[in-house]
Amino acid sequence: MKACTREAAIAMTAVSTAVALAACGADAGNDADGKKAPSIGLLLPDATTARWETQDRPLLEKKIAELCAACTVEHANAKNDVAIQQEQMDSMITKGVDAIVLVAVDARSLGTTVGRAAEADIPVIAYDRLAEGPIAGYVSFDGEEVGRLQGRALLAAMEAQVRGDQIVMMNGDPSDPNAVSFKKGALSVLQGKVKIGKEYDTLQWRTETANMNMSGAIAALGIGDIDGVYAANDGLAAGSITALKANKVDPLPPVTGQDAELGAVRRIVGGDQYMTVYKPFRPEASAGAALAVAAARGESLAELAPDKVRTRDGEDAPAVMLRPVSVTLDNIDDTLVKDGVYTVQQICTPRLGAACNEAGLT
Predict the structure, then answer these.
(1) What is the pTM assigned to this prediction?
(2) CA 2 – CA 24 distance, rounded (Å)
(3) Is 121 helix (H, G, I), strand (E, B) or coil?
């Protein structure tokens, strides 16, 4: 904390002294209790998935500011590069931040770096993805339930369209623990009810990889023999749908998604994508910010995180586990619009005007 000079204090009038003392508080980096204000590192994995920079980051920063007006947030994005994120973690440790909110690019690879942060008494809050190593807390959604919602929606859509039973599975990156949970949940619903014609793991969740893999699936299975597509998130859905259209697949099979990206919501209205999974960003960011501020202040997380998660090293960490929501054309208004994620005007571009009217989005 920077100190105000003795000379300046002597020279001040009573009113000016009050102003000076205020300046020596929040402006000089003090927390509400007069201690040095905490600094919090926010490490995001990529800019490919729209939610990280457009939803999670601003919501986390806003909530941290509400809980700790003098706190500083140091943000970095790894751009899907494990080595870059390891360097960013090391930089945060060297700077001596008081806590780190981490969305790991590769949970396993970051484990050692998380351990170094713990050795430096810097608590790490794993956000959305369960990082390996001695994390202090975890905030996310039930990943297996995400997969179950996707699987149930896909079965319902295929039955409604009286299609066959062969699907393509476009899974996420296997180095992401969430992707493993999504797949496990989906398979618990789909196995025994559909034939999985082709299945792909998509490294780094890349849209272009999903596009390439879907083209390969169409070539292998045939244009008319793909009855549904399990896509683990909206980016993979977008890549899959582009490939289906490029290969003249008509009508399009139902395609799942996740993250409720604006482009995905528009595809649902336009009939290209069947569903997405909405993971309410505000509750997740609010919980993540609360854990980060408490951890940075050296406070217990027990009351803030009533759940538990078992880490790979067998330890239990306090956690906040939230429930995801399935979104189809029928409930966009009651979920995403109602929660203020998007307005009808944002969703309903001129091209989608007729479809929005038909769906009651006006």
Answers:
(1) 0.80
(2) 7
(3) coil
Whether 261 and 280 have beta carbons less than 8 Å apart is answered as no
Cα 101 to Cα 78: distance, rounded to the nearest angstrom: 13
What is the model's pLDDT at position 16? 34
What is the pLDDT averaged over residues 329-355? 96
Please, is 354 exposed, middle or buried when counting C-beta atoms within 10 Å of its C-beta (0-12, 13-18, 19+)? exposed
Structure tokens at 153: 């929606």
Q: Which residues pair with 327 in a beta bridge?
A: 276
Pick the CATH number of 143-279+325-359 from 1.20.120.680, 3.40.50.2300, 3.20.20.140, 3.40.50.1100: 3.40.50.2300
Domain 6-142+281-322 class in CATH = alpha beta
Sheet holding 195-201, edge to edge: 195-201, 166-171, 228-231
| Partners of 228 in beta bridges | 167
Within the chain, all domains assigned CATH 3.40.50.2300 are found at 6-142+281-322, 143-279+325-359
- Between CA 345 and CA 161 the distance in angstroms is 30
What residues have CB less than 8 Å from 188, skipping those under 6 apart?
144, 147, 148, 151
User: What size, in residues, is the chain?
Assistant: 362
